[in-house]
C-alpha cells in the first residue's frame, strides 16, 4: 500500500500532500518498531508474554495505517454529491414528462403547443443570462453546469406553468369527445391497453438496468423484449377482433369467424422479424463476467484468417451482400419512380452507389491481404489502404451534399396534347412492311391519349405527371441511410456487413408490421405514430448495438476504427473520436436518422394494388379513384398537421430515450456503493449517456432532412404553377 501511494502521488495530484506525509510518518514509525522487534526476537531478549503484547501493539499500528490510508483514498476517490445527483435525476424526469405532455399537445388540432414550447424557451434563456451576469458581477467562478441546470429547470417550470394555466381552457375547446359515461368499459379498456402494453415493455427494459446480471446479459434482453412487444401487438389485435371477420348471422350465433387475408401477411412479417432477431445473435461480443462465452467469428477481420479459401469465400459473400443492398435500394427507388429524372442526386444514385461499392470492395481486398504482400507491392498496398477509404469518404460526402442541395427525386412529364403531327416521319429504308411497323404503334398511342383526354375533360385534366412525388420524403431518407451505411460498414470489419444487412432487413420488416397493424386496427389518426412503433424502433437500435459487436465496456471498443483511411498517427483527437464514436453507435445513428420513416411509411404503402376488388365503374370514376392515391402528398394537404406530427414523433422518441437514460442514471446513483459499480453500472451509464446524445443529434438531423425535402417540394410546386 505504501509503495502504491508513493507511485500514485508521482503521476497524480488528487491526494492531499499533508495526508500523504502523515501516512508516511505513521508507516515509517511502524516499520521501525517492527525492525526493532525483529532484532530483539533474534537476540532472544524477549520472553513470550512481552512478545505477544508487542506483536499485538505492532499489528494495531499497521491496521491503523491501513484504515487511515483507506480513509484518505475514499475521501479523494469516492466523492459523491448526492444533492447534485438527485437534482440531475429530477431534471431528467421533468424532461421526460415534458416530452410526453408536449407530444400529447402536438396531437391536438390547435396551435397551442407552439406558445407552450416557445415561451418557456425564452424563460430559460433569460434565467441563464441573469445567472451569468450575477456570477460575473459578484466575481465568482462561472459554473456552466450549474447555470445550464438552472436555465433548464426554469424553462421546464415555465412550460408546466404555461400548460397548467391553459389546460382547463383547452379541454373546453377540444371537448368534442363523448362523455365518460357513454364510453363502454371495453372501449376504455382497449384504449388503456393500447398505451399500457408498450409502456410495460419499456418499464421492464428500465427495471433491468438496476440488476448487474441483466446489464451483463442485455445483449439477449433487448431482442427478447422486441420479440415480446411484436407478439403482444398481434395478440392485442386479435383480442380487439381486428384479425377476424364474422361471416354471417349463423356463424356469429355459433361463435365462428374467419380470419382476414391480411393476417397471414402479418404473421409472415412477424416470423421474418423473429428470424432476424435470432440471426443477429451470431454477431455478439463477450464480456469478462461470462467466462464460458466465446466471441463471434464474424468480429475478426479477414486478414486474421489463415485459410485462403475461407478468406476468399467470405470476401465474395461480403461483396455480394453489399452489392445486394445497393440493388435492393435502387429497386425500391425505381419501383416508386424516384430514379426517372436526370437530376444530380438521381445520377449519383445510379452511378455513384456502384462506385462506392467498388471502392469498399477494393479496400477490403487490400486490407485482407496487406500482410501477404512483399517488396514494392507492400508500398502500393499501404497507399491503397489509405486511398480507398478516402475515396469512400469523398463520394459519401458528395452524395450527402447533393441530397441537401436538391433532395427532389421527382420526374415531371408534360401530359398536355401537343399540336404536332400524329406520326413522326420515318427515315429508314422504304418498305411497306416497315412503314406499317413504324406508323401503327404511333397511331394507336395517339388514340389512347385522345381517349384519355376525353375522359378527363369532364372532371379535370392532369397536365403534368410527376413520377416519384408520392415517395419523395422517404426516398431522401433511404438515400441518406444508404450513404451512412456505406460509411459505417467501412469502419467495421468486413464480415459485419452481414449484420448491417440484417439491420436493414429488420427495419424494413418493422416498418411493414407497423403499417399492417395500423391498417388492421383502422387507426383514424394517420398523422400520429403509436407508442409501440417508437418503442420497438428503439429496442431494435439497442439490439443492433450488440449485434454489431459492441458492449458497454471499454475493452470492447473498436479502436482500430480510428485508423481507417489513416496511418498510425493523428494530429488531433477530434477526428479519431468521431470515427470511433460512429463505429460504436452505428445502430443509434441509423435508427435515429430513419425515425421519420415511422410516420412516412404508411403513406408510402398506400398503393392502388392494395385495394380489394370492387364492382366495375365508369372510366371517369376509375381514373378519379386511381388519382386519389396520393401517398406522401397527403401530408401536403395539411402542413400544420405534418409539422405537428414530426414534432410529436421526435418528442416520443426523446421520451423513450430519456426514460432509459433516467433508469440508468438512477441505477448508477442508488448503486454507487455496489461492488460492480465501476465494472458494470458506471460504464453502462457512460455509454447510455453518449448514446442519448448521438441519438438526439441524429434524430434532429433526420427530421431536418424531412423539412428540407418539404421546402424543396414547396419550391417545386411554385415553379410548376408558373409554367
Automatic annotation (TrEMBL):
Top-level taxon: Eukaryota
Signal peptide coordinates: none
Single GO cellular component term: endoplasmic reticulum membrane
InterPro entries, sorted: PIGO/GPI13
Transmembrane segments: 85-103, 115-138, 144-164, 191-210, 222-239, 263-283, 313-333, 345-366, 386-406, 464-490, 496-515, 527-546, 585-604, 651-671, 691-717
Alphabetical keyword list: Membrane, Transferase, Transmembrane, Transmembrane helix
GO molecular function: mannose-ethanolamine phosphotransferase activity
Gene Ontology BP annotations: GPI anchor biosynthetic process
The keyword Zinc is assigned to this record: no
Protein name: PIGO transferase
Provenance organism: Rynchops niger
Gene of this entry: Pigo
